[in-house]
Structures are given as structure tokens and as C-alpha cells.
Design goal:
The complex is a heterotrimer. Chain B is of the alpha+beta class. Chain B contains 6 helices and 5 strands. Chain B has a 5-stranded mixed sheet with strand order 2-1-5-3-4, with helices on both faces. Chain C starts with 8 loop residues before the first strand and ends with a helix. Classes of the chains: A alpha+beta, B alpha+beta, C alpha+beta. The interface between A and B is large, with 55 and 54 residues.
Chain lengths: 755, 165, 464
Amino acid sequence: MKNTPIVGTSVPRMEGRDKVTGHSRYVDDMVLPGMLYGATVRSRIPRGKIRKITFAPAIDWNEFVIVSPRDIPGKNCIALIEDDQPCLADGIVNHPEEPLLLLAHPDRHLLPKAVEAVSIEYDPLPAIFTMEESEAQSQIIWGADNIFKSYLIEKGDVDAVWQNADHIVEAEYTTGAQEQLYIENNGMIASFDPQQGLTVWGSLQCPYYVHKALMKLFGLPADRVRVVQMETGGAFGGKEEYPSMIAAHAALLAMKSGKPVKIIYDRMEDMAATTKRHPSRTRHRTAVAKDGRILAGEIDFTIDGGAYKTLSPVVLSRGAIHAGGPYYWPSVRIRAKAVATNAPPHGAFRGFGAPQSLFALERHMDRIAQVVGLSPAEIRRRNFLKPGQTTTTGQTVNEAIDLSKLLDRALELSEYDSKKNKFAQENQQGRRKKGVGIAAFLHGAGFTGAGERFLGSVVGVEACDDGSLRILVSSTEFGQGTNTALCQIVAEALSLRYEDVAIAQPDTQEVPNSGPTVASRTVMVVGKLVQSAAVGIRKTLTASGMLEESYSPEEFRAACRAYVAEHGKLRSFVQYEQPDDIVWDEEKYRGSAYAAFAWAVYIAEVTVDLTTYSVAVDDFVALQEIGKVLHPVLAKGQIIGGVAQGIGFALYEKVVWEQGRMQNGQMTNYIMPTSADLPPIRVYFEELGNIHGAFGAKGIGELPMDGPAPAIINAIEDALHVPFNSIPLLPEDIFAALSESAVLEALVPSARGDR
Amino acid sequence: MNESSEQRAKCEISFTVNGKLQTVHAYPMERLLDVLRHELGLTGTKEGCGEGECGSCSVLIDGLLVNSCLIPILQASGAKIVTIEGLATDGRLQFLQQSFLECGGAQCGICTPGMILAAYHLLSKKPQPTLEEIREGLSGNLCRCTGYMQIVEAVAEAARLGAVR
Amino acid sequence: MRAHPAEYKLVAPGTLTAVLSLLARDPGVWLPIAGGTDVMVQYSAGKLPARKLVSIWNLPELRRIEVSADEVRIGAGCTYTDLREHEIVNSEFALLTSAASWTGGIANQNRGTIGGNIVNASPAADSLPALLVYDAELLLVSAQGERRVPYANFHIDYRKTRLAPGELVRAVCLQKQFSGYYAHARKAGARNAQAIAKVCLAALGRMAEGAVEDIRLAMGSVAPVPIRLIETERIVKGKQIDPQLIQLAKTSAAAEVRPIDDIRSTPRYRAAVAGNLVAEFLEHLGARGSRNENGKDVLARWNELPSLEAAQNILPCCGSKAWARGMADRRPIFDGAALLAACDEIWKSLRESDWLEAFRSHPRIGESRSPASAPAQSAAWSGGEQQKVAAAGEDVKVALNEGNRAYEQRFKRIFIVCAAGKSAPEILEILQRRLQNDEKTELHEAAEQQRQIAHLRLKKWLSS
């Protein structure tokens, strides 16, 4: 057969050539004949009733298409988990920037003024902006109690442990909102035909989420709604659920006008109006034995969901399940809840709850270490999960992961011990303090518990006229390598060449629903299905006698051509079936939460400059076990990119809120790292394999988001001996903490001649 | 003509783009970015922020890297402009484009045109830059996907291959 | 894009005279636009009040730099890139070029102009503190004629200047009188590039007979306009720089600034960092003294430094902190021979861990990048020493690479050799020979090489 492996090799990116020549087609690059441009009139207040809407006479409104809630044919909602979020607010607004009306015009330059010319009078209602205000329930803004969802995870007997604990360690940790900041803003084009139905093209992660939402909004059957993904310039979760909203808006304008409509947000609108990472607050209370072993713990994990439910229950779920990290908890009680505030709904962002709860946990481990008198490395060693032990949800670790050895390797690669000693010495003088910090963590790939079974993903592979194969999935490419990895899998599974396989553009008219492109599931879950579907093609060919058991790529292609010529088409579809060893109790929230965990230890080295109080990350080691590396360059790129976002989460990216509205919604004022800010990030892999993933792969897209923030804040504490429990941690925060205590003087003795 | 229609007057502005002479009939304050994308159909240059921060609208004007979202078209009169579409000659990829493909320098691709032009500009001034100089030269181009390392490697690799002749 | 291009008029008369007569004809109507890096941002956000603009981009009269015996006249239309690339501006007015280098990214430096920075009059503008310490004067021009004003009086409030209607800034005039000064600038921003300053300092200082003869401190982002810290300058001038003076200056600076609370930072942070930046400048000034003082000996100056500074100052010669401290403790040292002798004595007395630390400050043979922890001077010297290796052929480099890895695998540290003057094939031969050494022999060979490197660097240091 074939000798060069494709899986495990860095083959050229499938759509790479177009990307480097400027030929890729993103939504704003497409123009349809007669196309109008759309814009959104949005609420300026956080909460209140709409009393009156006035259209200023200076504008010739006859030229404009105007859509209001009355124009919605089906249900005025963006269907997701619940139908509480309106497509257009009708009578009552619950957050700043909430969409109220839509306008369209052939000349896009006329829209900004027109939007300004619509004035809304409100009767404001009291609004709430923090988790604490929401919990206080003095204002009920959602449901009966402001709580979107809550979970209780219990294991063992927590209450019995407190009296006998040698130590009880308590602390609270918070994380702020984070903007996904894909460089391509949200955009959609919609076209409506009374017979054919509705078509939308856009920047999105999940064509079938949009499809489902549009069906409900328009009251259309599945075959009269078509969603096509265009080349998407970054997503990171920010285009998981939000695209349904902007697609709905473009579609309504298209329906009303009878013309295609394009809506492209500018950066200010995208930042202010679309989803962000859920802010979080985690309270830990942990019973620890003298030797550092965790005996039991109570973890209170709360996230701020903004004004509507959207995906908060799922973010909450993942955050709660990851709250115990890669450690053995004999007993634990995790109380998790998602609460409502009058901010634009928060949503999916790489990591999806886990970066929040793991930040808290990994900071807390360092605190436990201090209380007990052990090193950060040792406290982790003594608590790491071992094969055969169970997680906080009672899932048995049934792979041969050795976390202690992983830690050893990370410590060696980063020269942790010698640096720690060296810095302790050097920090005694001067204004630059250095430190090193550890984070150990895990990330479950695929949908939680019964989620994958519920999704019931379907994939297809078909033979084309020229004998090549084409993958049919709704899984989207947005830089992470979906196209490349899936084609590698098929080529490898069938011993073909990489060039013999292609992948269809995700178009709900052409491809089945392989589930959303989220949850680090594409390579692991969808890839495995694609592998099976590919094998199905081969089985059909051999059964038909057109293909020998042993064949060359050319022979395979010839067989496909022959089969298609005779039978008209050659297609193989496979649907997901839950493996028997993944058993999950949705009521008690116990059992096997994920088909596979990836494991990691990250080590950060920082310098804190006490002249400006800024932190530089000087070195970063990212070591992870991810099953199988399908494509070294892509895998490394995912880790580095995720670490960069994690560094931003920790040190740079602050959303400045006022009355529920983001105030720093420009790239000048929302700070993400440039190339001058990041160190070389050193990436290393271990490969244990995974029975549930294609060629043993596990998901890795979100993993790198979990570790950097706690590793960095741990390193800063190592440098300054001052704990910080809240991110983002800006120089102003470091200064404030240091100047409050006498610590600053002690750190940098000033008026003495004792050098 | 009265004041307002005088104000509304478009004018004829000529410049070369990727070696080809172009004449557009545009308002003088139209952004070069919009003229390239909408009038000339050269959609390889992208808009990421509209405020000169992200660099995805980068083009070369008379050999200098600029953010086309900040240039009124009148000021481009008579200029020699190069966009991403002008880099591959006769279908043969520039070394930079090749090294971006090999090193993983392009993930979602939206920053890539601007990034490649910034790298091209850097190499035209410093054919053998240090890693620090590469980072500085690209510091005006934001990438959210890659964390920059594989981009820096791609530029270093292209430099090694003697990219800019 | 929130503005409608149809509502704006932009003309480009093409000569300064034509622009000025347009401005005179319709005072207050036409907004000059040069590179557009400020105006176009406001325009795109739909926040530009002006509807008529006149382009002054690339006007030849504005975009030249004239150097005479005493003065450098920088045209207001010069871009930051123009400044960075001009040899005289770089050598005489380094604070201006460093400000230019940290304004925006390369693309914005290619368009942003010094005149635009001045007239836009943001208190956070990067170049303005430098203009203050250099006592810049502005040449203002209108259809009526020219006038020359000190920059210090020009910027009167937040985004407000004394520019009269119909006037343009024609040039910035700087006197060539600062080469005897030590120049220091630092900006505190939210990130290392493309950051609006939260606080920035441009400073000049000159020492004479151990005391501060002249000092100029200007800061941005700490008041509605960039300011000179007059009071702090007064406290420092004429005094010797010691820890007490530095603390006084720090407190004075923190009190002298009037920072605001805004979306980027807090007043307390800005005040504290202002004090810290001034203190840092004084520490450097005290340690380095005057850059171009004639007749003063490197050793004599080094002998006078505080102990910690002396160690830090000589560290790049060897890389071992213990060695550096040892050298500092040996002072005063009066000549080169004694210096080298002290070096050898101390080097021989060190522990293995100190030797290893010294080894770690080098990049691998054949690599251009020093470890991030190595001081800049050390990295620069490494680059020079490895010149011949850098120029070697591919196959030799590959062999060196392989040899390095084999060495590291064997001895768990990088291969140290005194590379200066040696060709790559020579080094390769040495490497291959030493790969056969046993542990103990090899450690001593490496240490001997390190000693030779230290000698070479000490000699360079003496003549710096």
C-alpha cells in the first residue's frame, strides 16, 4: 500500500494557499446583485420599558427598509437552550445594546446617521450589574430568582471531614469578562425567496445552530432554510451562538425588502454588543491533612450570564465539572450557579467555564501549599489523580496518565528549581523581581455527559466524479485546522494521498449535522466518525468487487469512478453512538463527564518591574498529553495561540464596564498582546492515545486556555510574595496592592545607603 | 454648483495598484481601503478595526507599509500601491507566502494579507533581521490565532531563503 | 465606518503657499490633514466636526530636515520614520527618535508626523516631552508671515495650542547643544507596542565634578499638557546624586504631576510611576555620569559606583554574579593589568555552579539569540564574537548544530569556546575534540575558555 504517513505529518493547510494570496472569501468580500446594507438600532439603557419610538423627520425614511418585532413571522426569539432571548426587544429592554429595530439601505454610508436618527424614549427600571446584586435578589430581572441554572455535584461526605482536618484553607477568586477579539468582525448576508426560502452566508462556527434558530424565527421547515459558512476570520466561541442573532437580523431585512442584505459590524459595535467570556467568582473552602492531601472541599462557583440564558447552563456545567482539576478529592461539594445581570449576554469563549474555575483552583493549590508548608510542586504531586481513582463526578481515570512524571518533565524543561533558587537570591536587590509559577490541569473533550448522544452527530464521505473523496460535515474551519485534520484522517484511514481528499464547504443544503464546532470535539468525535465513514466507502467498493484488498491510490480512485458511473453515487454516512463506557447521570450530575481528558502542566516565568509595576512573561513552557498529535505544526499553533489568549486573560484584557456597557470597545483601549509582548512559548507533547478519538487523538483546542493565567499569577506571587486572586491583573492593581501594604517599602528599600 | 453639491463632488484619482494603472471616480475622503475593496474588487485587504491598530488593512504605498483604513483616497493620487494580490507573480508564491504555509503562519487567515505585507516591508529594509527585529516590525499587526511565534518563524525562514531581492 | 465621505471636502493644493492662502481666505473652516493617523480615526468613528479638509501630506516645504552649524530644523511634515532614519536627529536628539520608535507600529510611523503630534496636542503624545527638554522652538507660518515661539508656551491645555487661525506649524527647531548630556526616556504603556502612554518621561542630565550641573525632566500623560517638572529639577540641580536625593526627587515628582483618572489608568498609579521613572533616571545618571566627558577613566568612574551598580556594570563581561560581586569588592582597581589579574584570581576561586551560570549567559555557537536573561551588552558582545561563525556555510552550520546537541546531551550544558577570531571549521574541530573529554577535564577546558572570553570583554569594557 502506502508508506508515507499522513497523520502525524505537517501536511500543507487545505485552504492555506488562498489565505496567503488574499483569495479566501470572507463574508464581507461577497457582494450580491441588488444587495442592501443593514444596521441595528440598539438600546442605550440597561433596563426599562420602551415608551416611544420616534423617527427624525430629517431622514427620508421611505428609502429605508425598517424591520420591527411585528415583522417577525414566527416566534420572536433566538432559539437556543431556552427561548427567552428576543430577536428584537419588544416593549422591554434588558441590557445596553439590545437590538430593537433594523434598517437597510442600498448606500451603506447612510446607515450610521439613520440609526442615530431613531430616538427611543424609555421608562427606566432599576438595573443590576454584579453577581452579588443578582444574588441579593432585590431586583428580579430574570425568572423567579435571577438564576439561569444551578448544579450540585457531590461526592463522599464533606461535612464529616471538617472537624478532623489539620488545616482549613479558604479563599475567593474572581475572573473578569474577556472579549474573543477575532480579527474579523461578525457579518452575515441573507437572501429570501418566497418559494425557495431563506439563505444566509456568514462568519460562523455552527451552521445548524443558525439553521435551527431561523426555522423558529420564520416558522419555516428545515428544507426552506439554508445556512452556508464562509471563510471565517477567527471565532474562539465568539461565533458559536451569536451568529444566529445577526443572521436573524439580516434575514428579516431580506424578507421584508425582497433583496439580499448584508450586515457587517464594525469593531465598536462588535465589542459592545456581542458575547464575552462569563465573569466568575469561585469560593474555595478546603480541608487538608498535615501531609498536604486534600480531604474534602466545598467549591462555590458562580458565573455572570448577562441578561438572557443563552448558553450559560453549559458554561456553568463545564466550569463546575473542571472545578476540581486534575486532583483526587475524596469528598467534595460543588455548588454552581449562573445568574442574570443587565449586560449583553455572556457566551462561549474557548475553555467555556474551565479557565474560570481552573484559575481559582490552581491559585488555591498554591495557597494550600503555603498553609501546609510544602512547595507548589509537592502539593500537587501529593494530590494528583492516579489511574483507577475517580474525579469529582466519580469518573474513573482509566488511562495510564502519570501526572507526577508530567510535572517532573515540565519542571525540568523550564529549569524551575534552579530558577526558583536563583530568583530568590536576585530578588533581594533591585527593582525587577522574577518568579516562576506552575499550573496543572485537565480539559475534557467533547460534549459533557450525554451531550454527544443527544447531538447524534452525522457525517458523510462521498466519492466525486474524478474519483476523489469529499468529506461532508457541518464542522467548520476557522483557523484551527478542521479541513486539514479531517482530510488527513480520511487519507490515512484509506491509505490514499492527502491530495485525494477534499472537504465540502459547510452548507446545510449539502452536509449533514455533525454537531457544532465547539468543545474541542472536532478531531476527536467528528474525526472518528469521519474515519468510520471513510472505511464505509472502502467496504462498499470491496464488497462490489471493484476494489481489491490491497490497492494503490490511483486504483482506489478508479474504483470510485467506476462505482459512481454504475450506481450514480457513492456515499457513506455514519452516526455517533455513545460508547458503553461513558455513563452519565444527568440528575445527580455524576459519572463519566467526558470521553477523554487531555492533561497538562504549564510553567510561567515572569519579571515584575517595580518601576512601572508591569509584568513581562519571559519564558513559558506548555507541556500536555493529547492522545495523538495529528499535525505537529497545527497542534503547536493551537497551543501557542491559546497560551497567548491566556496571557491576555491574565495580564492585559480588561473590559471596562459602566452601567452594563463596555466602555473600551476599540482596539486602542482593549489591550491584546502584540508580537512585542509575548515570549517564545515552548510547546511539548506527550501521546498516550485515546480509544475514542480518530487515530488516538484527543481534543486540544481549548486546553491551552486553562493554564496560563494561574501559572502567571502564581509566578507573580513567587516574585513578590503578595497573593493576587483576581484577573485581569493590571499594573495599576499590582501597584494598589503593594502600596496598600508596607510591602512596597520592604521590597524596594529606598532612602538607605546600604547597598 | 452650490455649496452642498460642490461638497458632494467626486473626483478622478489615478494611481497604480499591483503595477496596473487605475483611475477611480470617488469622494476624496473615501478610505483607500474601501476604494481597493469596493471599487477595484481587491478584497484581499481586510478591515479589522478601522482605527489603524490591527494592521489587517496594511498595503504598501511607494514601498512603505501603511494602514489603508487611515488614508483618504485623494492622498493616494499618483502613488504606487501594492496589495496582497500583487505579491504572487506568475502564480509563483513569494518566499514569504511559501514559508507562511510551511510554518503555520496563517490560521484563520484574516490577518495574513496585512501580516505578509508587513513582513515583506521589513525584509525589504532589513533582509536579515534578528528575531527581535521581526517582532518589532510586525508589532503593528495583530493576530489572535497564532500567538505570533509561527509567524516570526515564517519570516525568519523567508529571510533565510533570501526572500526580498 | 461611521462617516459619509460625500459630506466631506478634501483638497490638496500641493504647495505650502497655496495651502496658506486657502487657510487665510476661509479662517477656521479648513482642517489641515497630514498623515491622517489622528484625523482619520476620528473621521471613521463619525466624530470629526470639520467638514472641509486641506491635505498637507508630503508638502516638500514641510518634509525636510535642515542641519546647520547650531540648529536642526525638522519640517513639521516629517514622519516618525523620517526622524528615526535621520542620522543627525538620532545622534543629537535621541529622545525624539526613541519617542518616534514607540509611537504606534511601523505603518503608523510611516504616516504620523511630528507636526500632527504637536497640533493634535494630546497630553499622551509620545514626542512632546522630548520637545520640552530640548527647549524646542516652533516656526509657525501663515499667509501673513512667520513667527517663532518656544514650544514650552505653545501647548496651553488639553488639545489646545496657541496656533492662530490660518497658521500651520512649519518646523521644529532644535539647538545642537545636548551632546554632553545623558539622555534617558521611558514610557509606561499597556503593552510593549501600539500603546498610548500612561506615563512617559523624557530626561536629560549633565554631571560636573560629581554633582548635577543641569537636569531637565518632562513628562506626558500626567497633566492636561506635557509638563516640565520644574520643582523637581530645582531640588536636584547642583546636588550630588545619592539615595537621599533620589528619594526626595521621587516624592517631589509624584507630587508635581496632576494625573487624571481615565479609561487607561488611575491617578495614584500615574503619580507613583512618575516618581519611579524620575528615580530610575537619577540612578542611571549617577552611575553613568556624563556620556562624553573627556579625560575620565572608565575604571575611575567604576571605582566610584555603589557596590551593587559596580557589580551589575561589569557583569556582562563574564556572566557570573559571584564573579561580578568579587570584582566589585576588589575596588579600587587602577589599571588594566590589575583588572585582569583580579579577574583570574576570582575566577579560579569560584564554585562550579558559578562557572555554569557564566556559561549559561551565552547563546549557542551558531545561534544569534542570547538567553532572555542575558544582559543586552553581553548579547551584543556575543554577536560580535561569533561574527565568523555567523558567516559560515550551511554544511558547517548544520554540523555545528549537531555537535552542539551532542555536546549538550553529553555534558548537560552548552558548549563554551572563545570564538573571537576563530572560523567555524576551527570551532567545529575543537568541539569534536572536546566531545571526547571526560567530565572533569571538559569542565576545566570550558572554564578556561570562559576566562579568555572574560579577558576579551574586559578589554572592550575598558575602552567603552
